[in-house]
Amino acid sequence: MKRILLFFILAAAVMYGILHGNLWRNNLYWLPPTAVERRNALDTCLQKPAFESLLGVDKIYPFLCANDFISVAEFHGSDKFELPYGIKRAEQFFHLALSRLQNCGLSNEEDSIACRRCVVVGNGGVLRNKTLGEKIDSYDVIIRMNNGPVIGYEDDVGRRTTFRLSYPESIFSDPIHYDPNTTVVLIVFKPRDLKWLWEILGGQKISAKGFWKKPALNMIYKSSQIRILDPSITRKTAYEWLRFPTRFPKKENEYHNINAEQKFLKQLIDKNFVVNLT
Description:
- The two termini are 23 Å apart.
- The chain has helices spanning 2-21, 51-55, 69-76, 91-99, 133-137, 154-157, 191-201, 231-241, 258-270; strands spanning 118-121, 141-145, 163-166, 183-186, 226-228.
- The longest helix has 20 residues, at 2-21.
- The model is unreliable at 20-31 and 36-44 (pLDDT under 50).
- It has a 5-stranded parallel sheet, covered by helices on one side.
- It is of the alpha/beta class.
């Protein structure tokens, strides 16, 4: 569980960098020709973000689209890796899941903000009684993880959610948590996750087999609110930065490379990529 939580923090940090710097605006290094037309036309920030040096690329588009995910995977080398780092041997499942989605864009709204201020909100108890809710809501983009609640904790965590990173075992299923202004980003760890998305959006019966705990059995979000994260981001976050293995052992503690994790987190702090609001 610690491995998954840390990965989500870092994946959210990548999205922070993507949104804050609008890295896909002027350079096509991480976009194949077929994907160029689906970029959001956001203006470049006046000041080039330092986060760009961490990514090691000029830009990245975060979500997969049904019409070109194969070419995107080939462009990034994701066709050579199995999940969670690529699409190899899961192409059919990606096709099925993406065929259910109505949108693969960054936002459902017209983008008019030249440079967006972003915040990543964790689910830890450190936020309790900090009354940071108003501060968090002042940001343009608010990224949350899994099923960390908002309702009942507004004074401490805020009310708004722009992106919520989730997987089948951690997504909200109670309609009380529905937010029409939230985009849910599915991080895929296994082919069963994609099959789950295809089934749940098709109104089919969901089997809990193949999940580490019971997944959501109903979808409270509209298909237009759901995106699938490009596995190349997973690969860069987990494999290249944290040195996770390509094949995962059964014992939980064997997932970790503690030295790599500590070194990377220290790098985020030392280079001022992250400001701790607490």
